[in-house]
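Hey, resending since the last one bounced:
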Amino acid sequence: MKVIEHFENAKGQTLISFEVLPPLKGGSMKTIFDTLDPLLEFKPPFIDVTYHRQEFLYKMRDSGYYEKIAIRKRPGTVGICASIMHHYGIDAVPHLICGGFTKEETENALIDLNFLNVKNVLVLRGDARRFDDRFVPEPGGHEYAVDLVRQVVSMNKGKYLDLDIENGLKTDFCIGIAGYPEKHFEAPNMRSDIQFTREKVEAGAHYIVTQMFFDNSKYLEYVDSCRENGMDVPIVAGLKPLTRKSQLSSLPRHFHVGIPDDLARAVEKATKPEDVREVGIEWCIAQSKELKAKGVPCLHYYTMGDTETIRRIVKEVF
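The structure tokens again:
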């Protein structure tokens, strides 16, 4: 079933969904099942699986020269989605990214997903490579997420890259995109960021999933801005609990989100790691309850492999 159909069937009730990371190369599906098994009691209608771009490492050889080696540390998104759907009977939503993929590789991935009866994709530009100061598209790939949205929409219309293909199979993907309540860090201002999001919705995106946030007012203001700019698609609230004191600096640095003063002060006062974790859990529970009371379509939890913490939060909310 499509994500958008789950929202329609919910008739205004707040749904819950989870996001998981593929295991590191050499790992097994047991890692995914161990993460999801304790969360299945909450009956999530869909589960997101992230996609990770190819990175490059430099290894010194006996000759003294460095060799550039390509590696994908967390492969297997498509297979994991198929396994989740087969094992649990729950819809899986693979992330589809621009970075590291040509248009033809993207098309082939979409064909594979369609053959596996995966009906949903979350379309993202993706991050820059670790040592690049800006995002660099793959030669023959997309530079912007809106172009990736357009490619998926074209396939939904039966249009492929090979123009000689006539009467091509029409896919039927439901398309999600990312939203940024505190703006994407590369956008010059919030107005521009909202406009970029609107372009993706106008191109054919069906719903929005937000970046994590810790201040609900930022999410609510973002929703209002989207509505004022003609976007009436569901806007899913993305949540992640703060569980370590080091995240006071690492989360703003890596994810470009703000930490509210009350949360920061409570974390700073905590003297033990377990106390920091409790502060983060209680904050996320309060966030979740308020958002649910506001009637958000879905609370989407970034698990990051921390099943116990997410389960405690969700149990207090649903």
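The beta strands are 15-20, 46-49, 55-60, 66-71, 91-97, 120-124, 174-179, 207-210, 235-239, 298-302.

Sorry for the duplicate.
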